[in-house]
Design brief:
The protein has eleven helices and eleven strands. By secondary structure, the chain is α/β, with parallel strands linked by helices. It is elongated.
């Protein structure tokens, strides 16, 4: 337990994700509802160090719940790893009366939050990342929207791939995590899904699968490639050379970070933002909000960062079995 919090700051850090605005809105509205003052911090930790801090009211977050991106903007701040920089940030929080801070971002953002907590700033992390790579939670803000954006794009690519009887490689985001690729693999019925957690780089197996499908009369072949593997363009050239089948690569890229968030991202982000404020008002610090088994819960940030996330075998087996021809 820690000191009482009367002024709450909120920032978004790292990569943006659809639903971050819903979380910001909830932090602002919940804080005001509970009689707390709330301060917005632009551009993450970099903005905190630059004192880009302003008081927020309910009107500031009106009509933002359906907007993509983050109204507070975001940035990466490598220098925040230095102890003297963290001390400076803590001093700035004290200068502006910020006793509690809600950090919306990924694991790197949470590491910064736990360092601030050591300097007396009550901190609560809210998982905002399209990658779904935070082990303590089954849900992260933005993942649902990103998957739906990718799924819709892959559906469109399949149409033109069938028309031209092509093989298409679609690269989706996720850094070193294959969750977007896996979910799209199931949702789009992809013939092959390449995940960084399991890919064995046996390209001949892919080539054989494409040729086997063509012999069976298949008019297309969809390969979903995770960003953590990458090199989709060069892979497409090698597959075309080996099969004689026209092969094209499409890298979906940052379109997956944008767009109006889905209902799930709006609702879950709102609940997480409100819960973060509640935790601060209870005097808690160095916690991260999570979602497990249908409940919104919280974990110690250090324990959460030490957890290892793995893709369940059932997901992988299902992706193979339901897409088999």
């Amino acid at each position: 337990m820690s000191k009482e919090v009367n002024t709450i700051g909120v920032l978004t850090s790292g990569g943006d994700a659809p639903g971050m605005n819903a979380a910001i809105r909830a932090v602002v509205r919940q804080s005001i509802y509970l009689g707390k003052k709330v301060m917005g911090i632009r551009r993450g930790y970099a903005g905190l160090l630059a004192e880009e801090i302003f008081e927020m009211n309910s009107h500031d977050v009106s009509e933002t719940i359906g907007r993509g991106g983050t109204i507070l903007q975001t940035a990466r701040c490598k220098e925040f790893k230095k102890p003297e920089v963290v001390q400076k940030a803590a001093d700035i929080c004290a200068k502006h009366g910020i006793e509690g801070l809600v950090v919306i971002g990924g694991d790197g953002s949470f590491r910064g939050a736990t360092e601030l907590a050591k300097h007396g700033v009550n901190t609560i992390g809210v998982p905002g990342t399209i990658d779904l790579d935070i082990a303590c939670t089954e849900y992260t803000i933005g993942f649902d929207t990103a998957v739906n954006t990718a799924m819709q794009a892959i559906d469109k690519i399949r149409d033109t791939s069938t028309s031209h009887e092509r093989c298409s490689i679609i690269e989706v985001m996720g850094r070193g995590a294959g969750y977007i690729a896996l979910w799209c693999g199931i949702a789009n019925g992809a013939e092959d899904v390449l995940l960084p957690e399991y890919y064995d780089y046996d390209e001949q197996k892919i080539v054989d699968h494409i040729i086997e499908g063509r012999k069976k009369g298949k008019q297309h072949h969809i390969i979903i490639n995770a960003e953590g593997i990458g090199h989709s363009t060069s892979l497409a050239k090698r597959i075309e050379a080996a099969t004689g089948i026209e092969t094209r690569a499409t890298i979906l890229g940052y379109m997956q970070r944008g767009g109006s968030p889905t209902a799930k991202d709006r609702v879950y982000a709102s609940i997480m933002g409100a819960k973060a404020v509640d935790l601060l008002c209870e005097g808690k610090t160095n916690r991260v909000v999570g979602y497990k088994h249908g409940d919104f819960i919280d974990f110690d940030i250090i324990e959460a960062l030490d957890m290892e996330k793995v893709i369940e075998d059932f997901f992988l087996d299902t992706c193979v079995s339901v897409n088999a021809r």
